[in-house]
Amino acid sequence: MGRLKSALGCLIIATATGCGSQIPTLKEWADQNVGRPVAELQAMDRSPRSYASRIGWLEQTYTLPNGHWVYVHPDRRHCELHFEVDPGGMIVSYRPVGEGCEHQ
After folding, report:
1. CB-based contacts of 90, cutoff 8 Å, min separation 6
2. Within a domain: 1
């Protein structure tokens, strides 16, 4: 009976922690965008239900000396993700900017 309780306890803990891990971290979410077309991210930000739309975000971009450009994505208050985009429109890297990105 003791082993059964122990096994049941492990199962409950594994299930509970598995359910909690469904929401990706900021890094996990941003990493998933590398290698994808920036147009997908731009479309998501234009969606009426997006955080960008809810805060009245105006699209921001800037160019880099290497011929790439950066698409600025608002993630949360005081946190933006600056996605580096190649000339073909593919996201090649990113960097979090802002104090709101810390500990995410």
Report:
1. 35, 36, 37, 38
2. no
